[in-house]
Amino acid sequence: RTHAGGRAMVAAFDTAGAISREIVGHKKKVHSVAWNRAGRKLASGSVDQSARVWDVEHGVQSGKEIELKGHSDSVDQLTWDPSQSDVLASVSADKTLRIWDARAAGGSRCVAKVDTSGENINVAWSPDGGTIAVGDRDDVVSFVDARKHKIIKTTKFPFEVNEIDWDNAGARFYLTTGLGTVEVLEFPSMTAAHTIHAHTAGCYCIAFDPTGAHFAVGSADALVSIWDARESACVRTVPRLEWPVRTLSFSADGTYLASASEDLFIDIADVATGECAHKITTRAASNAVAWSPTELLLAYAGDDKAGEGGGREGTIRIWGKPGARSD
C-alpha cells in the first residue's frame, strides 16, 4: 500500500459497523484473555482464581460460560492448544500448570495438574502442540510434555525473564528480559542463537504476527518495536503509549498491532507504517489484548473497578467487526 510518491498509506481501521460488547462473570480483575484456534471460544483468567471459557460464536451470555475451578491463587496467564480447539492451559501463583478440556461435561474439566517449583506468571504452547513452556517469578522456565503432562526440562536464567514464546515454526524460543534484550534460543536444545538488544529498559511482552513476517516487543520504556522476523531487525517503533507496555497482539493477517498499558486507551497500529489506525478508549489500565485468529475482533481486559464510570470489576470487552477479515 503506497501513495504515488512512494510513501506508505496508513491502513486506518474502518469502524463502520464495529461493535463493542461487555462480558461479565469474573468477580475480580482479569489478567489474561486468549482465543482458541477456531476463533469461536474465548478463555479468560482472573485474580478470582478461576479461568472461564466463553462461547463467542453463539453469543456470549453471562452465566452460560464454562467455569474452570481448581487453582488456589490468581490465574495469571492462559493459552490454547494450537493443535486442537477445546484444550487449554493455565498457570497460577499457586505453583501449578493446569490443562483443561472445555468439552468435558460436568464435574472437573481439569485433565492434568503439573506442579512447578515457583509462582507461575507466563505460559506458551509450542506451535506443534507438543510442549508447554511455563515461566515463574524466579526466572525458571519449565518445559512440559503436553501429552504426558510431565516436566521434561527446566532452565534457570541469570536475568529477569518476562514473557516467553516460540516463533511460528517452533524452531526458536524467545524470552523477553529485564535487561532490555530478547534472548533467542534454539529449540529444543535451548542453545543460544543470538541476543537482540531491543530496548533501553526491560522488555515485558512479545507477540508474533500469524503470517510470520514480524514480531513485536513491548517495553518498560513505553515503546513498542516491530521487527522483521527473518532478519531480527527493527523496522519501526510505535511511540504513542506513555506507560510501560503490558500486552501486545497482531491481527490475523498481520495488518494491525494492538498494544496497551496503564494508559487509558488501546493503540491499534498499522504494522506497515507504525502509524495509528485507531484508538480504543478504556476505563482503566489494560492487562491483556488478543485479536481473534479469524475475524477483526479484539478481546481486552484490565483493572476495571466497580462503580468507576459505571464499570464492573472483572469485565472483559470485545470490540471490532464480526465477520470481517483484515485481509
What would you note in describing this structure?
The chain is mainly β. It has no helices and 28 strands. It has strands at 19-23, 30-35, 41-46, 51-55, 66-68, 75-80, 87-92, 96-101, 110-115, 120-125, 131-136, 140-145, 150-156, 161-166, 172-177, 181-186, 192-197, 203-208, 214-219, 224-228, 233-238, 247-250, 256-260, 265-270, 276-281, 286-291, 296-302, 316-321. The strands form seven sheets. A four-stranded antiparallel beta sheet has the order 1-28-27-26, with no helix packed on it. It has a four-stranded antiparallel beta sheet with strand order 2-3-4-5, with no helix packed on it. 49% of the residues are buried. The model has no long low-confidence stretch (mean pLDDT 92).
Summarize the structure.
This protein is mostly beta strands and about 325 residues long.
